[in-house]
Specification:
- The chain is of the alpha+beta class.
- It folds into 3 domains: about 5-275, Spore Coat Polysaccharide Biosynthesis Protein SpsA, Chain A (Alpha-Beta Complex), CATH 3.90.550; about 280-355, no CATH class; about 365-470, Jelly Rolls.
- The chain contains 11 helices and 28 strands.
- The strands form 6 sheets. A 6-stranded antiparallel β-sheet has the order 18-19-20-27-22-25, with no helix packed on it. Strands 6-9-7-8-12 form a 5-stranded mixed barrel.
- β16 and β17 (about 335) form a beta hairpin.
- It is globular.
């Protein structure tokens, strides 16, 4: 196989079905749900171990750009490009942008499009399926991967296979794509032997995808091209032009191209795929005890069976329960029947309508320089624990409505306060008066931890005026 395979990793999912662990500020692709690495890291490592693959193109949103970059850096992976979507527009425009980017460098190469938040158990079988698909993609076909179904699952879309592709044992023309079915329909699909689950993974040349997109949805292609043409460099990122990308219709590749094209093909595969779409899916794919319980964290059970039990911060004891999901985080507890775990997304939507914050972030909030987490809060005060990564710094800023006290717990802090710059060691402290320009910096190669006590009439995160920021935040 002569063609280079260019992975395109789509990193824009929200993961609402895995609340309360997955939040808007840190959705499921950034969490270590299956292995010790995040789903994004597993995805990048999986394609990185295929010799035919080049460095990946990452499509991510603006808010998660530093999180993506940091997680790839931990693996030693330097992406070919990290392209920032200013607004979510589904998969067809995102893939169009990546294809346009590749058309300039390797138009006849092959692009492998895959979500960042799926799990694959058998990497070897996955690689072999990619090689099989690449042979058909080199002939001008738009190939997707159909997963051999193990049950009549109503949470997936399905693909019906058509005529076999000559010379290939497991590649077929696409008969049709079908939406998530009801249970009786899904049973019929399984019984027929002609259907597979739609994995959402695709492989084709940039040229062919753009040709078919221009044929069926020229409006998406035009908006995507204008967004890339007007893109600007921002540190290591390519920031798409906002107005042009906003004009792109929000449509999936399935609707825009795959359901319409006559060049669609499907590789029937079985590589231990899961979209990690719910707590019950995690239970199904994880290692369980003799009673069918999957336990994560400090969890003890007695007379419990068939449960997914996770406790991140404290002891969880389950007694005499069956087929439950219990997920305990620092600010929220979810308890539900395992068979209804997908319905948690409805509760997350309620949180948004109710203008609550538990669907947005946990108490630990990640920033490009490190993180902060709320320890305590009350009338006119708030206490936070702050970690600053080595050689990183917060912006030069001031607050109109609050003052701050900093106490160094470990490490060395370099403090800018007004016209003064000085360093604080462990157990030393300083005071930042209201309205004073200030900056916190870690000048060392060690992590910096400190306690911040805020006091004032208003303590919201929007009470900030930035004068200088190395991360180009507004």
């Amino acid at each position: 196989m002569a063609e280079t395979i260019h992975p395109v990793i789509l990193c824009g999912g929200s993961g609402t079905r895995l609340w309360p662990l997955s939040r808007q500020s840190r959705p499921k692709q950034f969490l270590p749900l299956v292995t010790s690495r995040s789903l994004l890291q597993d995805t990048a490592a999986r394609v990185g171990s295929l010799p035919e693959c080049s460095a990946p193109i990452i499509m991510s949103n603006h808010e998660h750009r530093f999180m993506v970059a940091e997680q790839l850096q931990e693996l030693g992976i330097v992406p070919a490009a990290q392209i920032l979507e200013p607004v979510p527009r589904n998969t067809a425009p995102a893939i169009a942008v990546a294809a346009l980017q590749l058309r300039n460098t390797d138009p006849d190469g092959i692009m492998l499009v895959l979500p960042s938040d799926h799990a694959i158990a058998d990497t070897g079988a996955f690689h072999e399926a990619i090689r099989t698909a690449a042979r058909s993609a080199a002939k001008g076909l738009l190939v997707t991967f159909g997963i051999r179904p193990s049950e009549p699952n109503t949470g997936f879309g399905y693909i019906e296979r058509g005529q076999p592709i000559e010379g290939e044992a497991r590649v077929f023309r696409v008969g049709r794509f079908v939406e998530k079915p009801d249970l009786d329909t899904a049973r019929g699909y399984i019984a027929s032997g002609r259907f597979s689950w739609n994995s959402g993974i695709f492989l084709f040349s940039p040229r062919r995808y753009l040709e078919e997109l221009e044929r069926f949805r020229p409006d998406i292609l035009k908006a995507s091209a204008q967004a890339l043409q007007g893109a600007a460099r921002d540190l290591d990122f390519i920031r798409l032009e906002r107005a042009a990308f906003e004009a792109a219709p929000a449509e999936s590749i399935d609707y825009a191209v795959m359901e319409k094209t006559s060049a669609g093909a499907v590789v029937e595969a079985d590589f231990g795929w899961s979209d990690v779409g719910s707590w019950s899916a995690l239970w199904e794919m994880g290692e369980k005890d003799a009673a069918g319980n999957l336990l994560r964290g400090d969890v003890q059970v007695k007379d419990a069976s068939g449960c997914y039990l996770r406790a991140d911060k404290r002891l969880l004891f389950a007694l005499g329960v069956k087929d439950l999901v219990v997920v305990d985080t620092d600010d929220a507890l979810f308890v539900g029947a395992r068979s209804r775990a997908q319905e948690v997304k409805d509760f997350v939507e309620w949180l948004g309508r109710s203008q609550r914050s538990e669907h947005v972030s946990q108490r630990r909030v990640y920033r490009p320089w490190g993180y902060y987490e709320s320890i305590d809060a009350g009338e006119r005060f708030q206490v936070k624990r702050i970690m600053v990564k080595p050689r990183h710094a917060l912006s030069l800023q001031l607050h109109h409505k609050r003052a701050e006290h900093w106490v160094v717990v470990s490490g060395i802090a370099r403090v800018t306060r007004g016209d003064s710059v000085y360093e604080l060691a462990e157990n030393e402290s300083t005071f930042i008066p209201l309205g004073t320009k200030h900056r916190l910096e870690n000048p060392t190669d060690q992590l910096l931890y400190l306690i911040e006590v805020q006091s004032g009439a208003y303590l919201g995160e929007d009470d900030i005026v930035r004068f200088d920021d190395r991360y180009h935040r507004e």
